[in-house]
User: Fold this.
Amino acid sequence: MFKRSKCLLSIVVLVTILAFTSSLNIGQEALGGTSYTVPAKTTVQDIAEEFFDTSDYWPAIMGSTNRKHIEDPSFIRIEDPKVPIEEGAKLWIPSKEWANMFMDIWTPSKPELLFGTRPKGQLVVASWWTAGGEAEGLKALFDIYKNRYPNVEIVNATIAGGAGFNFRAVIKPRLIAGDPPDSFQLHAGLEVEGYSPETYLKPLDDLYLTEGWNKVFPQDLLDLLRYKGHYWGVPANIHRANVLWYDQSIFKDADLNPPKTWDEFFSVAEKLKAKGIVPLVLTNAGGWEAPHAFETMLVSTCGAEKYKGLWNGDVSWTDSCVTRALEIFKKVLGYVNADYSALTWDGAAEYMIANKGAMNIMGDWINGLFMAKNYTDYGWTSVPGAQGIFDALSDTFSFPKQAKNKDNVTAWLAVVGSKEGQIAFNTKKGSIPARTDLTEEEKAQFNPYLRSAMEDFKKDKIVPSVIHGAAAIESWVTDFKDAITMFLVRKDVKATQDALVKAAKSALETMAG
Ligand code: GAL
Assistant:
């Protein structure tokens, strides 16, 4: 009985792997393997003998070389395994692991397995990346895709508005109507709940296996990505939300150091204010930027464990660390620019570039914007009181079940998760790669901020961002956002904390089902 179910299970696994491998370039890079230049005219059978001790493994070499050829034409395309291969031809020798997997699914009755499909037609990618840094990062991914698949027309379907609040309102009805874009941006974490993934999205577990992503994404991220036991998106990056950015010249001229505690912050802010400089540039035109700043204050006053506990029900929102965060925020509001409700997050950069504003609390996508604007006079530190805590989020791309160009989506997700894709994208986007297998040389392509963030991610305590979809279901994020919006107007600590307590109660009830 056990044997039979084990056998059935392997058939199911093989069939799913087959479905993927027949149409995409398997992530041989992550699973190991090597390129091989043929030293003298030979046959693929002989090469198989040499590398795998059996000529029977020629299909694994032919299959992997032909898939490599699709993404990189410097590898040859083997049309006929009987025709000898010329000296100097470049082949891909897969790892033993990959070759074994391939030989398990290989059958002469399916010769198409030896080739892999070259995508064509359209690929509609939806995101909210329209600002500086974001747009450049996305373009870098598209460039790789176009290079690999020149026959596919990419449609860049953007819906502007930081953090994706406008975006989700547009994408959801499309998904429900059965007319989704081919792939859309989705934060890792509980945001996916709002898309009813089991109904509308394809689980990507097999793709994670064949691309070797289980081995190259960090465990914290893998845990965040898994919802109801499955992966629903492929991460392009990891962003940090709780960074305090500051203008170096302003600090130098005023002989100030970036603040490490809230007391230091207020003392610095007072001095800057006296000089006619906006101490902290706040933005909130998108309605999420001020709640984002408040989130980072909560991380700071509650600390990593308690902050996490607020979102899983272990810590009550009546806790004094919440009161303290609101009190700090109230005081901070005395040191911000008056026009914040009309400024989107990227507007803060203008203040800093013009030396009119000294500090800004924002996620590190603003590092991408600074790069896009050639602004280099900035420094960074943790939001006061949160040294050693990394408030994290990640942007992924999903695979709607009703996507019209499925082969193209699989190929797109493979690019998003590839090393080449992650380096090209993140050096522009201002985030760090989700992959942990970068060499020192590859890391050197990132700017100093990003190199420091890579180190921080390795050693810091990781907590999930709420405004950027990681920590809470969407209705909770909305209630949280609304409570803080009201706080900006009324500045009422008690009423706001009560609203947050109520929001938590109702969300936790919903989550408990
Ligand atoms: C975040 C997103 C980032 C960045 C930011 C501003 O939610 O994860 O990639 O784009 O919004 O738009």
The chain has 22 helices and 16 strands. The pocket of beta-D-galactopyranose is lined by residues 128-129, 134, 162-164, 187, 239, 345, 363, 365, 393, 395, 468 (CB under 6 Å). The two ends are 36 Å apart (CA to CA). Residues 289-312 form the longest helix (24 residues).
